[in-house]
Design the sequence.
């Protein structure tokens, strides 16, 4: 740990930590729903000792547990461009002290709803974690050679600004401080990452790869400004290339494909050879540690805390507490109706429901999951016809609910169960499996899957026990900072407008360059852009970078404005944390804002001088009304590289309040372009298909009687969808909707009938967009002429 100074908290002794933690409220701050789920389960139901040797109500820790989302505190993402895990943890601990210090009133206000607490006296302790794994080797020389081999294979795939990944690998080994930043930069994502590992091992003739996994936790006491740090480690083998490929062939529907998929921990019973994900499914988190087949760091942490502060007995109030469960079908997401449930619910479950879409549209501050504590999704029977485009309500429901679970701080602690007993979600789960392989979804699966009556009943029992016995403070929902202005009203002023989708999960060098290039072209052509307010990262963020780059170029070619030009160009010295810096010291680095040819570097100006871009927009040198962004404060706080909840500079930004309203704003234009993205982009695509089908049906039924569903004025039957499928990342999506770029008759007819264009290169993307814009302008003219009967067209 770094030595204490004016800005660092003081490190507590173990004895001090134990004294503070007993009877305290423990607040977990993380942007990861996976961690919330795991720790909720461990901290409330895991008891050390042989199974059956403890009273059923003696489970969990002698503390009260909640998470930042339950207190209405939006998650914040810590910058991870640092060295080892411990360096990240120090930064997160400092950040958590700041968050809890700033939110003391909000925390204590929430506590006043609970009779167990004296809200003004209870001690508050924050917990943060930085976990990860790295490969281990026989000696330092072998490790150096392996890392060099990895770097040779990675370097051509990285941009100049991503060189921090290379220095990180040199300092910390593979995969560095976090697997995700590396995976995000690979077009083939997890598959490509694993192949790089195997290729490097083959090159060095390493037959058996080993890994170490560490869980580093810090507990902070905002009252005293002190913290306690503890690390837990485990070790094991990595699947061979042959074993990995064989496992892929046997993947269970709904199974996550991540590091757990290839890691075989040491210490398994009877010398079994199962990966961590298999062990988790078999009860890794719920059985006694003396019977568990593997040493799992988070469970070890739980047992350490139980030894330190003791197990607790649930109160009679907790044991009688009912748990709200919502049963949801695609239909009930839009219409309030009761459902017949074909499963015997454990006692103490109380049926609840979710707000329907129309309620969320009219109420930006309404909670997406309302008071539901468990959500069970049930499929509907779907009829598919090869000759028609179809919208998949089951996939749409799963995407909508799980993306909400992943991005909304107050929905992250609500477990999602897919009731797949009928097999109705099989195609959806195939789709999700492809999202894992292609990198559109990373980490753990955002839901549980029940394939049988027994699996569903067991899941419901375990979750009910956790929710019922858990001493969780009451949810406190803060009002969304959103007005009631209809978010879909982009101007219908004759400007060609495009929604450009592409999520934060994809940061490959080629994809970001393509998106930046395309955003530059849109700005040059005077097209209006709509995105989800991504900044710098992902296809949406790179599109914004291209938009800003074009207008900076225009500024340089414009006479005058010498003062702001000089401010933009002036180099800046900043302090950065480097891997080689001892004890987390910061070093100075000079940032350039013009390249060797004298052109402004938009990326650096956005990141370090966003206030100047805002000034340019205020002076009408960057047209705000040509770039619309729709997002939510929690998403910005997790993803914005500018810090806090800042949207990209120089745009017109709308705080949507909830995801349903955000989608309405994003999909307002008649033309949609889909670039490499994440599972959220898949959700936007499904909503687009549904919207375009509804618009066409309405046009057929009512003619021109109604105002267009597209607020930019696009006629209902003229919406266009352009799909950029350069590296095959959307093959499964195209196959799912039967619109693959093949010679199949039905696929070709659907593409032509519904104005769907599939492109595989940036050149094709630009050409398709230009053709679409020309066609759009012609159709708008025809629509205008048709509405003015006295106007004659020149022939």
Sequence:
């Amino acid at each position: 740990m770094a030595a204490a100074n004016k800005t660092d908290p003081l490190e507590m002794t173990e004895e001090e930590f134990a004294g503070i933690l007993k009877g305290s409220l423990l607040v977990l701050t993380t942007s990861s729903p996976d961690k919330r789920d795991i720790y909720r389960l461990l901290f409330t139901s895991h008891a050390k000792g042989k199974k059956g040797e403890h009273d059923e109500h003696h489970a969990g820790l002698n503390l009260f547990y909640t998470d930042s989302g339950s207190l209405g505190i939006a998650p914040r993402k810590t910058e991870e461009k640092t060295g080892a895990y411990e360096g990240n943890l120090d930064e997160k601990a400092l950040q958590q002290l700041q968050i809890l210090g700033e939110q003391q009133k909000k925390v204590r206000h929430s506590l006043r709803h609970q009779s167990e607490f004296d809200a003004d006296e209870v001690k508050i302790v924050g917990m943060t974690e930085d976990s990860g794994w790295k490969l281990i080797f026989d000696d330092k020389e072998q490790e150096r050679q392996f890392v060099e081999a990895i770097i040779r294979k990675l370097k051509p795939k990285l941009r100049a600004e991503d060189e921090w990944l290379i220095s990180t690998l040199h300092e910390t080994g593979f995969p560095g401080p976090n697997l995700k930043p590396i995976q995000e930069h690979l077009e083939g994502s997890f598959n490509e990452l694993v192949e790089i590992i195997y290729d490097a091992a083959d090159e060095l003739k390493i037959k058996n790869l080993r890994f170490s996994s560490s869980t580093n936790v810090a507990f902070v006491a905002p009252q005293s400004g002190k913290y306690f740090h503890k690390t837990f480690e485990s070790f094991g083998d990595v699947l061979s290339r042959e074993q990995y490929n064989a496992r892929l062939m046997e993947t269970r529907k709904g199974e996550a494909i991540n590091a757990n998929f290839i890691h075989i921990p040491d210490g398994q019973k009877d010398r079994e050879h199962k990966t961590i994900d298999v062990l988790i499914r078999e009860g890794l988190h719920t059985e006694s540690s003396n019977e568990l087949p593997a040493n799992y760091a988070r469970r070890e942490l739980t047992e350490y805390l139980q030894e330190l502060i003791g197990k607790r007995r649930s109160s009679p109030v907790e044991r009688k507490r009912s748990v709200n469960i919502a049963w949801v079908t695609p239909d009930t997401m839009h219409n309030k109706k009761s459902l017949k449930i074909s499963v015997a619910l454990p006692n103490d479950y109380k049926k609840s429901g979710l707000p329907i879409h129309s309620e969320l549209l009219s109420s930006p501050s309404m909670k997406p999951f309302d008071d539901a504590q468990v959500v069970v999704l049930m499929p509907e029977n779907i009829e598919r016809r090869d000759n028609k485009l179809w919208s998949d309500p089951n996939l749409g429901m799963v995407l909508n609910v799980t993306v909400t679970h992943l991005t909304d701080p107050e929905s992250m602690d609500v477990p999602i169960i897919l009731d797949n007993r009928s097999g109705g979600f099989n195609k959806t789960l195939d789709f999700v499996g492809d999202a894992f392989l292609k990198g559109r979804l990373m980490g753990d699966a955002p839901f549980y899957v029940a394939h049988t009556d027994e699996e569903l009943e067991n899941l419901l029992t375990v979750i009910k026990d956790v929710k019922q016995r858990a001493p969780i403070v009451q949810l406190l929902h803060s009002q969304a900072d959103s007005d009631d202005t209809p978010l879909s009203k982009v101007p219908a002023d004759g400007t060609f407008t495009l929604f450009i989708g592409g999520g934060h999960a994809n940061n490959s060098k080629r994809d970001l360059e393509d998106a930046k290039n395309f955003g530059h072209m849109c700005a040059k052509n005077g097209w209006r852009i709509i995105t989800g307010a991504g900044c710098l990262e992902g296809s949406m963020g790179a599109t914004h970078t291209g938009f800003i780059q074009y207008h900076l170029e225009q500024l340089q070619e414009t006479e005058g404005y010498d003062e702001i030009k000089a401010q933009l160009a002036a180099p800046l010295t900043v302090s950065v944390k480097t891997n080689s810096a001892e004890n987390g010291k910061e070093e100075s680095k000079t940032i350039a804002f013009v390249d060797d040819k004298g052109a402004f570097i938009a990326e650096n100006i956005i990141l370090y001088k966003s206030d100047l871009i805002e000034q340019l927009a205020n002076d009408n040198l960057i047209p705000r009304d040509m770039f619309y962004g729709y997002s939510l404060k929690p998403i910005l706080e997790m993803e914005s590289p500018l810090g806090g909840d800042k949207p990209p500079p120089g745009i017109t930004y709308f705080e949507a309040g909830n995801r349903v309203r955000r989608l309405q704003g994003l999909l307002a234009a008649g033309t949609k372009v889909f670039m490499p993205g994440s599972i959220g982009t898949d959700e936007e695509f499904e909503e687009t298909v549904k919207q375009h089908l509804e618009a066409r049906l309405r046009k057929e039924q009512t003619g021109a009687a109604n105002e267009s569903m597209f607020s930019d004025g696009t006629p209902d039957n003229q919406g266009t969808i352009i799909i950029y499928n350069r590296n095959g990342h959307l093959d499964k999506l195209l196959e799912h909707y039967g619109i693959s770029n093949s010679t199949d008759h039905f696929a070709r007819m659907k593409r032509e009938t519904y104005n769907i264009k599939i492109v595989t290169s940036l050149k094709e993307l630009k050409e398709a967009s230009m053709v679409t814009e020309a066609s759009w302008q012609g159709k708008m003219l025809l629509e205008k002429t048709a509405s003015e009967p006295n106007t004659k067209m020149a022939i």
User: Anything to note?
Assistant: Residues 338 and 682 are 29 Å apart (CA to CA). The radius of gyration is 27 Å.
